[in-house]
């Protein structure tokens, strides 16, 4: 064992910088999770008095917190569904375009919003969705009164869902197009000889062969059910829409950083991490069982 | 592929192009509108006259941004962050991916190392404990607070590791016979072959560093140290 270590010393040394940095910035914070069970006092640090499950009990009794769970699940469920259906449909339509350059142009155009941060996107959305913005300008041309997309609590979640799908579907399209390009053209030729039209070919050849990729992408997004998109919502919400727009992450942020309730905020973060971790575990097992895909 | 020349097919192709063009326009027209607004006079903008072409053309908004000082300062912080951050990311990705691409027979404890890194992908200490560590290490207000906590992007590292595993083993074996040390193999033999994979993960790092704003807001006490996206975020909040 020791001679082996000596032989491989160079390899182990190469790993050392990463091991140290990951230990400091990812593993020591695990120890910091103890403050979820303490009443954190900056002067005492991690030696603050223990309070058991008090922080968890306290937060679960807050009606404001319980509604964030519902809001998170509601928005992320629709984001996940839309984030699969829209790119699949778009990839199928794009796949019907015979000309390679035209196909690539469309693909690039829809991929553009992906490269911008939610800060920039929020700036754009605030601009185009405002009462004198371009969207309401067009709606007024159609005789529809101005819609308050970001200030109306019943509309806000849908503004988030649609804009998230809009920003992200270009990436999914690229993934599904890659899968489509892997389908054996011989299958289509055989189908044509059997008299199948394009629609039948799509139903009986394309979709079944695309299914493993669809299953894989859906299963992988399971781990994100509790992430309804902090970057997006934090930059677009306002107290007016907290009732339907506040999610777990924005709640943790307001509580932790803005109100300095370190212990309670860490407790909520821990609760979320544990659930997410279980979901990620389940989704990895499912990805292997259903789509026969090993991530590691 | 065999051509279908029925009327229905032509109708479908036409409808398909209409849908594709409409969707693509939906993805870029907001940016065209934004560009038009940025070059328009403020009166025309508040009157809602600007659609896709500037009205009362002016570059005032750009002159204002350039002279304010804050924009250029934060742009410089962002440039530093992207350059330093990407270099650190790529360095650690390569140094980690190469040893881990070996089987556990050739690298004792390989699977333990792998688990060590993957755990950080699945689980993290959360906002506050990580913040407290950054405070303890004295990185607050330093550009390193934006670089070191995410110094090793594990996902990119796994991509590169799988890429190295896909290379023919004979390349490395012949280098070993020639007496090359692991470091020499990595730098002289593997690095030139890794260029396409490094370009991919490098792009992830560049876009990631350029776009992050949240760490800038929480780790920088002095707003003069904000990277561009954090500065823009404070502008957004002040509306």
Q: Which helices and strands occur, and which strands form pairs?
A:
The complex is a heterodimer of chains A (296) and B (239).
Chain A lengths: L1 H6 L1 H24 L21 H7 L2 H33 L4 H12 L6 H12 L4 H8 L14 H26 L3 H9 L4 H24 L8 H7 L5 H4 L2 H11 L3 H29 L6
Helix pairs in contact in A: 3-14, 4-8, 4-10, 5-8, 6-11, 8-10, 10-14, 13-14
Chain B lengths: L6 H32 L3 H5 L13 H8 L2 H31 L9 H13 L4 H10 L17 H12 L3 H9 L4 H12 L1 H17 L2 H6 L8 H10 L2
Helix pairs in contact in B: 4-7, 4-10, 4-12, 7-10, 8-9
Biggest sheet layout of chain B: none
What's the CATH superfamily of the largest domain in chain B, by name?
A: MetI-like
Q: What level of helicity do the residues of chain A show?
A: over 70%
Count of individual beta strands of chain A: 0
Query: What are the low-pLDDT stretches of chain A, counting only 5+ consecutive residues below 50?
Result: none
Terminal CA distance of chain A reads 26 Å
**Cα radius of gyration of chain A in angstroms:** 24 Å
User: What is the assigned CATH homologous superfamily of chain A?
Assistant: MetI-like
Level of helix content of chain B? Answer: 55-70%
CATH domain fold name of the largest domain in chain B: MetI-like fold
What percent strand of chain B?
under 5%
Total DSSP helices of chain B: 12
Structural class call of chain B reads mainly alpha
SSE topology string of chain A: HHHHHHHHHHHHHH
**Helix and strand pattern of chain B:** HHHHHHHHHHHH
Any idea of the CATH class of chain A?
A: Mainly Alpha
Task: Output the CATH class name of the largest domain in chain B.
Answer: Mainly Alpha
Q: Which word captures the global form of chain B?
A: extended
CATH topology value of chain A: MetI-like fold
The CATH architecture name of the largest domain in chain B reads: Orthogonal Bundle
Summarize model confidence as the mean pLDDT of chain A.
86
InterPro entries (chain A): MetI-like (IPR000515), MetI-like_sf (IPR035906), UgpAE/MalFG_permease (IPR050809)
Subcellular location (chain A): Cell membrane
Main location (chain A): membrane
Organism (chain A): Paenibacillus pasadenensis
């Amino acid at each position: 064992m020791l001679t082996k270590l000596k032989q491989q010393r160079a390899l182990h040394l190469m790993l050392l910088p990463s091991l140290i940095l990951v230990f400091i910035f990812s593993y020591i914070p695990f120890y910091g999770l103890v403050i979820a069970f303490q009443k954190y006092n900056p002067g005492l640090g991690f030696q603050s008095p223990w309070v058991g499950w008090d922080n968890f009990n306290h937060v679960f009794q807050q009606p404001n917190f319980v509604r964030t769970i519902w809001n998170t699940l509601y928005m992320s469920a629709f984001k996940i569904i839309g984030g699969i259906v829209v790119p699949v449909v778009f990839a199928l339509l794009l796949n019907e375009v015979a000309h390679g350059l035209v196909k690539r142009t469309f693909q690039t155009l829809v991929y553009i919003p992906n490269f911008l941060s939610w800060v920039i996107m929020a700036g754009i959305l605030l601009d185009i969705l405002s009462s004198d913005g371009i969207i309401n300008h067009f709606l007024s041309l159609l005789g529809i009164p101005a819609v308050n997309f970001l200030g109306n609590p019943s509309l806000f979640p849908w503004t988030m869902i649609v804009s998230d799908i809009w920003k992200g579907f270009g990436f999914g399209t690229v993934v599904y197009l890659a899968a489509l390009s892997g389908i054996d053209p011989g299958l289509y030729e055989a189908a044509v000889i059997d008299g199948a039209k394009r629609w039948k070919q799509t139903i009986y050849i394309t979709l079944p062969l695309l299914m493993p990729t669809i299953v894989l992408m859906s299963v992988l997004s399971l781990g994100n059910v509790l992430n309804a998109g902090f970057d997006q919502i934090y930059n677009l919400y306002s107290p007016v829409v907290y009732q339907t727009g506040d999610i777990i992450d924005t709640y943790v942020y307001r509580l932790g950083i803005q109100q300095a309730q370190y212990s309670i905020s860490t407790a909520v973060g821990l609760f979320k991490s544990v659930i997410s971790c279980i979901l990620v575990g389940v989704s990895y097992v499912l990805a292997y069982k259903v789509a026969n895909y090993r991530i590691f | 592929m065999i051509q279908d020349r029925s009327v229905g097919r032509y109708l479908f192709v036409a409808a398909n192009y209409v849908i594709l063009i409409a969707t693509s326009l939906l993805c870029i027209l907001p940016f065209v509108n934004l560009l038009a607004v940025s070059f328009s006079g403020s009166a025309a903008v508040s009157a809602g006259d600007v659609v896709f072409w500037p009205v009362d053309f002016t570059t005032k908004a750009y002159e204002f941004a350039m002279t304010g000082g804050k924009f250029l300062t934060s742009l410089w912080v962002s440039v530093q962050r992207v350059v330093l951050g990407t270099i650190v990311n790529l360095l650690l990705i390569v140094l980690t991916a190469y040893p881990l691409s070996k089987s556990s027979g050739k690298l004792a404890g390989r699977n333990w190392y792998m688990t060590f890194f993957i755990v950080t992908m699945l689980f993290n200490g959360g906002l506050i404990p990580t913040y407290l560590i950054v405070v303890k290490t004295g990185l607050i207000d330093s550009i390193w607070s934006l670089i070191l906590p995410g110094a090793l992007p594990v996902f990119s590292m796994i991509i590169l590791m799988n890429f190295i595993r896909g290379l023919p083993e004979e390349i490395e074996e012949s280098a070993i016979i020639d007496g090359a040390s692991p470091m020499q193999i990595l730098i002289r033999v593997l690095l030139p072959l890794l260029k396409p994979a490094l370009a991919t993960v490098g792009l992830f790092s560049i876009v990631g560093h350029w776009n992050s704003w949240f760490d800038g807001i929480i780790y920088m006490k002095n707003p003069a140290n904000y990277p561009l996206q954090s500065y823009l975020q404070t502008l957004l909040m002040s509306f």
